[in-house]
Design goal:
heterodimer, A: 2 domains, about 30% helix
Chain lengths: ~325, ~325
């Protein structure tokens, strides 16, 4: 349904050009959830913006993004407007800033329906009510005329989801949808998303820095580090048996992460150093300089995908020699 | 006979008046912190967990005397801090220091790291010489894993994790016995969180520091704290050793929180969790009642008080 091939996002003119994101390829089928996980600055939000054609001025995307066979990267802004909010729905991190504070939630949901599907105001409002009920807002009828500030954070995110779903999109992109929410509310929103994906047969791209959120919601997971995907696999396998040294380090440095819960006071394993900025990324493997298994060859070129017998692929030349 | 606790809070409260509904209506109040009591012994690593809006940050600010309390007492080494004259209090402040959540907002971008870290030294009685200050800045920067030469740099030259180390160095320079850290790692990336948590543990062991850690992240709290309090809408609903509470949470709210965490088994797929949205809070009775699966009729009438349920453990629930 969605096919991304060799997507890259660059900034600046060729001599001093910087790649924020490169070599991103994946496929997503309807009814499936792809998790994209990475630390801040890894390029995961840029990836979402590139797919939707919302890159800020000065950033250029290359490669290919196909939605049901239709290439999106070459479309004009006018054509993209017909796709965004219609065939691609978006959910943002901060529901308070993503919603219009001066418009009732009912009107915000109805807006897309009137615009894209030419529904009358009345029909659109009726549909908005259905959607509010579907996303689990109590007393939806009364809430229709409420403004965003009258809702709790979790309810606002539910409204955000209702807006994204309004036109029955084929693809839903959720960028950190639960990061601003409390744990108990997070769980509800993730449950809701999972139900909707199955029910409406959408593809969902779920972007998060939170490994827990990705592990429990995504069918497949793409791990991005410093602008390059380093590992890709089904979530169950990837979180149980991570291969790339970065994924391993990340999972074991998490309290309660890999290796289960540790005794109190035991020091957590750490990854040395910090995530390099785009201008300071190493030329070869992007994880070089922080990797405990680094050898000279790692700095020669960006590693290709390697895999062990029957395993998920990882971009590491030493995969077979790792302990 | 137990020794004098390092810090104790008695019935600490902070109310904010709400706007009147009409000119003759009675004043109503928002109870950010509503009658919290606890003690900290030397060497404790005490965690306070709760969701946003439960009052945990307000509680930290009350303990640090950054905000006036509406009622209650805070004693530090047996001395009532609220009754101290301002001058005396200022001198006491070097014994308890705070680390804030946002390492970008809590460091003045116009000051060099050396000046930022040396700033609390102004709280000391006999001013130290320039040379002495320089030495102490260097020592404390090294203690948190930075270099003495970093003192000449400015905050923007550092990453988030390093900035949080600077903030910790600033808190340590007066050689305090208590550090209150309000969400010290939640603004940091996962791979950096572990570094900062390990640093806090090292400081506790090497310098015998006492920590109060405020966090919404149960996994973090479980990793470093020996005792915890679970807070809900301004009150402690359960206190006890981390081990006990994680093994067998007593209060229904603690159970709910833990379920949300343990659902996070990275190797298992999600299962459905039934939780209610925290909506209207009742003005009478138990604040958790609308979300509580165990609520009985009594919960609507009177608010439960924190009472002992086992040695070293207490919970505020009528049903237990």
């Amino acid at each position: 349904m969605l096919e991304v091939k060799d997507l890259a996002v660059r900034i600046g003119a060729p001599p001093t050009e910087l790649a924020l994101l490169e070599r991103v390829s994946f496929r997503l089928e309807a009814g499936r959830t792809l998790g994209i996980v990475g630390e801040s600055g890894s390029g995961k939000s840029v990836l979402a913006l590139a797919i939707m054609g919302l890159l800020p001025a000065g950033l250029r995307a290359s490669g290919s993004v196909r939605l049901q066979g239709q290439e999106l990267l070459t479309l004009s802004e006018k054509e993209l407007c017909r796709i965004r909010g219609n065939r691609i729905g978006m959910i943002f991190q901060e529901p308070m800033t993503a919603l219009n504070p001066a418009m009732s939630v009912g009107d915000q949901i109805a807006e897309g329906l009137e615009w894209h599907q030419g529904l009358s105001r009345r029909a659109a409002r009726a549909r908005a009510l259905d959607l509010l009920q579907r996303v689990g807002i109590p007393e939806a009828k009364r809430r229709l005329d409420d403004f965003p500030h009258q809702l709790s954070g979790g309810q606002r995110q539910r409204v955000g989801i209702a807006i994204a779903l309004a036109c029955g999109p084929q693809l839903l992109i959720a960028d950190e949808p639960t990061t601003a929410l409390d744990v108990t509310v997070q769980a509800q929103i993730l449950d809701l998303l999972a139900d909707l994906v199955a029910e409406m047969d959408m593809g969902l791209i779920l972007i998060s820095h939170d490994l827990g959120v990705i592990a429990e919601t995504a069918d497949e997971t793409l791990v991005i580090y410093a602008g390059v995907p380093l590992e890709f696999g089904t979530s169950r396998v990837l979180f149980q048996k991570p291969l790339h040294p970065y994924t391993r380090g990340l999972l074991s440095s998490m309290p309660g992460g890999r290796g289960g819960r540790r005794a109190r006071g035991v020091r957590l394993p750490t990854i040395a150093g910090v995530v390099p900025e785009p201008g300071r990324r190493p030329p070869g493997c992007r994880f070089a300089g922080r990797c405990p298994y680094e050898v000279a060859a790692c700095n020669a070129a960006l590693p290709d995908w390697h895999r062990l017998e029957g395993s998920q692929p990882a971009r590491c030349i030493r995969l077979k020699e790792l302990p | 006979m137990s020794p004098v606790p390092l810090l104790s809070a008695e019935n600490l409260a902070r109310y904010h008046p709400l706007p009147r509904r009409h000119p003759f209506a009675a004043r109503s109040f928002f109870m950010a912190v509503d009658g919290v009591s606890f003690t900290l012994q030397r060497g404790d690593f005490f965690g306070i967990v709760g969701e946003s809006g439960c009052g945990k940050s307000t509680l930290a600010r009350l303990l640090m005397l950054l905000e006036p309390a509406t009622a209650g007492r805070v004693s530090f080494e047996g001395e009532d801090l609220f009754s101290l004259p301002a001058r005396q209090l200022r001198l006491r402040r070097r014994h308890f220091q705070m680390v804030f959540q946002d390492p970008y907002g809590s460091l003045d971008p116009r000051l060099s790291v050396g000046r930022i870290v040396a700033e609390p030294l102004r709280l000391e009685v006999n001013g130290s010489s320039r040379e002495e200050r320089k030495e102490r800045v260097a020592a404390v920067l090294e203690a948190v894993g930075l270099q003495a030469s970093d003192a000449r740099k400015y905050p923007h030259e550092f990453s988030g994790g390093q900035r949080q180390r600077i903030a910790i160095a600033r808190a340590l320079i007066t050689r305090p016995s208590l550090i209150v850290a309000d969400e010290p790692v939640s603004a940091l990336d996962v791979s950096v969180q572990a570094q900062v948590l390990n640093l806090l543990l090292d400081l506790q062991e090497e310098h015998g520091l006492t920590h109060l850690l405020i966090s919404h992240d149960l996994a973090v709290v479980e990793q470093v704290c020996n005792r915890i309090a679970v807070m809900y809408l301004g009150r402690f609903v359960e206190t006890g050793s981390t081990e006990d509470i994680f093994r067998e949470p007593a209060h229904p709210y603690s159970r709910l929180l833990l379920e949300a965490l343990l659902g996070r088994d990275l190797t298992r797929r999600r299962r459905h969790r039934k939780t209610a949205d925290p909506s209207a809070t009742p003005s009478r009775g138990c604040a958790f009642r609308p979300r509580c699966p165990l609520a009985i009729e009594r919960c609507a009438r009177e608010a439960p008080r924190l009472k002992a349920i086992a040695p070293g453990r207490a919970a505020a629930c009528h049903v237990l």
